[in-house]
Amino acid sequence: MARSNALPAQQAHEKLKALGILALNGMFDEMDALGVLRYAVSDVLPGDLAIVSSFGADSAVLLHMVAQVDPSMAVYFLETGKHFPETLAYVERLKSHLGLLHVHAVHPDPKDLARFDPNGDLWETDPDSCCFIRKTDPLEPITAQYGGWVTGRKRYQTRERGVLPHFELTSDDRIKVNPLAYFSDEDVAAYRRAHDLPEHPLYGKGYKSIGCAPCTSIVAEGEDPRSGRWRGFNKKECGIHYDFSGAIASPMSAAKQHALWKDGAFIVDPFKGWVEGTDPGDARYTHVPVAVFLAYREAFLANPHPLGLLVAPGDAVEAVAENLGRFASIAVSFPAFTDGRGYSTARLLRERFGFKGELRAVGDVLQDQIPHMQRCGFDALVVTHEPTRRALLENHLPEMALFYQPVGLREVPLGTRPFLRRVS
What we know:
It contains 15 helices and 13 strands. The chain is of the alpha/beta class. It has two domains: 9-255, 3-Layer(aba) Sandwich (Rossmann fold), CATH 3.40.50; 260-418, TIM Barrel. The chain has a seven-stranded mixed β-sheet. Strands 3-2-1-4-6-5 form a six-stranded mixed β-sheet, with helices on both faces. A hairpin with a 5-residue loop joins β5 and β6 (175-177). The longest helix has 17 residues, at 127-143. It catalyses: [thioredoxin]-disulfide + sulfite + AMP + 2 H(+) = adenosine 5'-phosphosulfate + [thioredoxin]-dithiol. Its cofactor is [4Fe-4S] cluster.
């Protein structure tokens, strides 16, 4: 937790603006990592700075500096559940060797894992979502406690990091400190030898940048140290880092702008839109249009991956009634606020065909519609309308106390006598 004498993030942000980011970065020699860290801890964000460490190949160097400047600084380790056993052992070894007093493991939400990665193989098909669930999302509430945080990023690691400064003013009002920005691989190795620091057990085996085991491979001679991360994927960062130009990734606050509302919160959505030309036997986590499903029904039924169904106005859900159990989610489209056919579709799915899975409304979803949608059986909403997002977050949806048309068998319309209702 941030300490009570913490400097408010915005105040520190304004302080750095006043100094001028160029002037601030000009205060230190390129290799004065210890000076950068000491100044950040004592002058820029006293008591309001934490470090996020991967406990990877180069982590011992920065953690050694932390131990010299302030061994009580909070150190957060993202325990994704996918680390090498050697990394977990290395965490304990460095804690003991350096005398770090507050090392905390940050775990992903078990509910997110159960829902989006029940078999633990999401990294194979969607590494960005895997990183979000296991790293970015769990870290957000931690970093929100602090005005800034320290990273071990270095310019030499990738082309995108080649403009990395010592201090960054980020768009989400945080100050990011990169003491090792100008260190080379040789500088790191020399520092480690000079201070007799323990080496990560996998480093000598060719792992130059070490993350989660499934997405980390040995680096060949001449390759970038991070080329062994997410090899074969069009991916370079896990999402928790971005530089001041925004070239590496979007700020975490932007990543939090999820559109899927479920169980009282906006959450990460594992499903993506259907892409024409997708192999029906290989599709996964996509809402398949009804017409496409009917055209390739057997292939989709034989497909072992999670699938959804997209129902547009005019689609006959009766045609897929016998296969509804195949879908983990059904998305019902509302192309316009005035088009109410989706309500009837939802009632058919829930009441006549007994669909028990996720039923989501997509399209023109506005706050006035939501109470009606919920009455008809929708338990998830894809919301992009900003006033509606705010209404959901602030629990300011319109209330519906009276109604004239019942839903299911549990409601009694205004002005009728319940004992005269026919139950079919």
